[in-house]
Amino acid sequence: ILFASFLGLGMSVAILGPTFQDLATNVNRNISSLSLIFVGRAFGYLSGSVIGGVLFDIMNHFLLLGVSLLVTTVGLYLVPFCKTAVLLIVMMSVFGASLGLLDTGGNVLILALWGDKGAPHMQALHFSFALGAFLAPLLAKLALSTAVPAENHTEPDFYHPTLNRSSEADSESLFGVPVDMNLLRAYAVIGTYVLVVSILFFALFLKRYSKQEKAKASVQTFRRAKYHNALLCLLFVFFFFYVGAEVTYGSYVFSFATTHAGMRESEAAGLNSIFWGTFAVCRGLAIFFATCLQPGTLIVLSNIGSLTSSLFLVLFDKSPICLWIATSVYGASMATTFPSGVSWIEQYTTIYGKAAAFFVIGAALGEMAIPAVIGMLQGKYPDLPVVLYTSLGASIATGILFPVLYKLATLPLDRQRKENRKSEDQKALLSSSGLNDYEDENEEEDAEKWNEMDFEVIEMNDTMRHSVIETSRNVLMEPTAEVSYQTLSNALVFESSLVDTGNSPVKHLPETRTKGTNDE
């Protein structure tokens, strides 16, 4: 359902280009005086991104996405009925706000559902947007096939006096039946599709989470990088240059090819189509690439491809073959950068509504500012390939910014790894020294045991010596002098033998008693 919503988002954004002339005719204005319609939509887009960033942190995602799609449906139905330029600009602002809210919410919901494992889903989400942007001009061409062709609105029509004034009928009514019903048909088809998707989101909102899903959501880990705010600011600048270069090249490559490279209009249109065609195809292929490659790897490959192709575009800006090949490579290289960038930052810090809104605003500002500035510079310096210089400058900027982003994100991790290695080495040293201490303690314990055994033997010898002396004294107390003399001499010999041999006296004691008895 989320992919279907981004398909509708792509169609809603891209439908304005091929129907712009018809909308100007519908409000009785020329194209130059109605250019504020793009400013109004861009301002609404920025406002919707900011509002969505706040609301998605405190409200149900499905409810907000359903409401934003419902507002988009109302805008798509009402835009063809607007009969004044002011009302059309206001309607486009509201329409843009709903699109900005949907863009922010879609990225946040992908990250909330799959986290840092959602790289393929993120690629599929943005492929759906590219597919919708590709289908919208085809749908407009089918719906407006019976309308007056755009070639009939030549340069004088920009200054036709009847188109620069507002009729009395316009001042009386704000809404009215469109001049061309095919215009209504094109917007109504897209609006009906978006309405169906919004109903599906409301159905998801009404379907309560099960207890298991609630428990799973509550267990989700929250990561916050040490340099969280710095990473978001750098990512803001990164997306500013990337999206600005993407939109600038896609918008001005046609005029560049006709005025600077000398191509025919049909060839220039083909060059424009191949840029967006390779862009959409590679976004589709990136769904499969994301399953086997890390987001950082995809960003590096994209930066290398965009830098190489833009450099060739600048060096060989007059060569048609180089323009065709380099434009194809440039479109393919730009395809995966935005979704890969969102998936990459999620690996290091958790992205919620406000953070997602912040870098979406950076992308929207790049989409607004860079094409406007390049348009003025191209008009001031028509002989210079300003569009190609912009592509090369943006590629250099993103090529420098991403290594800085990577270093800033991984710096705390590198320090933590070094600290872990130091702690592991310390533990290993402590364990080895502990083993040596254990061996020393065992040796000391053995020595103490041997000393205790020696003391016990000495104590036994002293005890037995005292007992022998006592026995000898008792014998000396008897009246026979010979016996006492012999006993005393035997006792002295026995005592001397104890000192000389160190053996236990238990073996000699019975023998002494026996001799004494025989002598008696």
Protein described:
One of its GO terms (cellular component) is membrane. It is found in: Membrane. With 520 residues, this protein is mainly alpha-helical. It has 2 domains: 180 residues, MFS general substrate transporter like domains (Growth Hormone, Chain: A), CATH 1.20.1250; 184 residues, MFS general substrate transporter like domains (Growth Hormone, Chain: A, Up-down Bundle). The protein has 18 helices and no strands. Helix 4 packs antiparallel against helix 8 and helix 10 packs antiparallel against helix 14. The chain is globular and about 90 Å long. The termini are far apart. The C terminus is likely disordered.
What keyword list fits this structure?
520 residues, mainly alpha, Growth Hormone, Chain: A, 18 helices, disordered C terminus
Radius of gyration: 45 Å
State the end-to-end CA separation.
123 Å
Number of domains: 2
CATH-derived architecture of the largest domain: Up-down Bundle
Mean pLDDT figure: 74
**Could you say which overall geometry the principal axes of the C-alpha atoms support?**
globular
Subcellular location: Membrane
Family: Belongs to the major facilitator superfamily.
Main location: membrane
Protein name: Major facilitator superfamily domain containing 4B
Task: Present the secondary structure layout.
Blueprint: H1 2-14, H2 16-26, H3 36-55, H4 61-78, H5 85-114, H6 119-143, H7 168-172, H8 181-206, H9 211-219, H10 228-259, H11 265-289, H12 295-315, H13 320-334, H14 337-346, H15 353-380, H16 386-476, H17 481-501, H18 509-519
Helix pairs in contact: 1-5, 1-6, 1-8, 3-5, 3-15, 4-5, 4-8, 5-6, 5-15, 6-8, 6-11, 6-14, 10-11, 10-14, 10-15, 10-16, 11-13, 12-13, 12-14, 12-16, 16-17
